[in-house]
Specification:
Order of helices and strands: EEEHEHEHEEEHHHHEHEHHE
Strand order of the largest sheet: 10-9-6-7-8-11
Radius of gyration: 20 Å
Number of strands: 11
Oligomer: single chain
Helix content: 40-55%
Shape: globular
Structural class: alpha/beta
Largest sheet: 6 strands, mixed
Distance between the termini: 45 Å
Bound molecules: 5'-O-[(R)-(carboxyoxy)(hydroxy)phosphoryl]adenosine, zinc ion
Amino acid sequence: MPDVVLGIETSCDETSAALLVAGGRGESRPELASLVILSQDVHRVFGGVVPELASRAHLTALPAVVDRALVEAGLGWHAVDAVAVTAGPGLAGALLVGVVYAKALAYAGDRALIGVNHLEGHLFAPVVEDPELEPPFVALLVSGGHTLLLDVPAWGRYRLLGATRDDAAGEAFDKVATLLGLGYPGGAAIEQLAATGDPARFTFPRPMLDEGLEFSFSGLKTAVLHAVRGSSDLEGDRPHLARGFQDAVLDVLVTKLQRAVEATGHRTAVLGGGVACNRALGQLAARRLEGRARVVVASPRLNADNAAMIARAGWYRLGQGERSDWTLDARADLPLPGLEAAPAPTLTSRL
Ligand code: KG4
Ligand code: ZN
């Protein structure tokens, strides 16, 4: 098992590198020695990520980001035993930059290489800070591209309980932020604005609230669009619209999470992905699951796209004896390894 793993993440618009070092208490508890995240600003003016620009920005920044991570960890390249890199899912060209760079580093230095699934990275994010965290648990992964409810009976085994039928939760935040003129990405701006909004002013639909474990957010987005068009004082209504929208999304997310906790009987619920940076989400989940399950959320820096989670998931895979070879490829639609579709769970209560 390696003692030092370099993680690299370039799946979307963050260029990130991190170093994980074996801790004093054995290989299952590595410590984060450094984490560098460079967020690409260039996309703001376009109101969304432009894939070609993302690839070019990664290409320019990645060597300096990796060097910076080594400097901050106080380590030289010679200390690195293995390179863990996001191989997908994500933007094909952006992923390719990270994968090719990681392959070149590992090949030139004769180091181990491991390709990591970005979603498995998000699942491992809280473990970086909370090494005690162990399955079984229910995980709600909510990012710009995914909304997944998973039963995690063991690391590496993932049973899909529910996913979105249309927009991802983060995508809904971003689209509503655009409607409210908040710029891209808009999740954090909505959260900030919602904090001053009146929850009673706008009540938006909670799509599929009473049924199953799947999600749908496109109707909610349309409802906000109608409310925006119908507003005679948009400037004054913006915080209330943001609040009404956020309350609806969080209600749906947490109701499904509760239902999954009831269905599986697990005593731990993990929130992950960029939307898990939303503190109101963590608070609502903790309140509703009190006495039923412990809610675990990593700090925002580890929930947004970052290389520490990739290094940690890679650490786990390397510990299982896995290695990637030089044929490792970037795959925009890489499936989560060990993902099984779960049979419809028997609900023990009607939540
Ligand atoms: O995981 P992530 O960094 O990238 C993907 O893998 O997609 O997630 C990014 C998403 C964006 O849609 C962003 O608006 C959302 O996470 N997000 C938030 C917050 N911070 C980021 N959504 C709600 N509240 C936040 N505070
Ligand atoms: Zn992500």
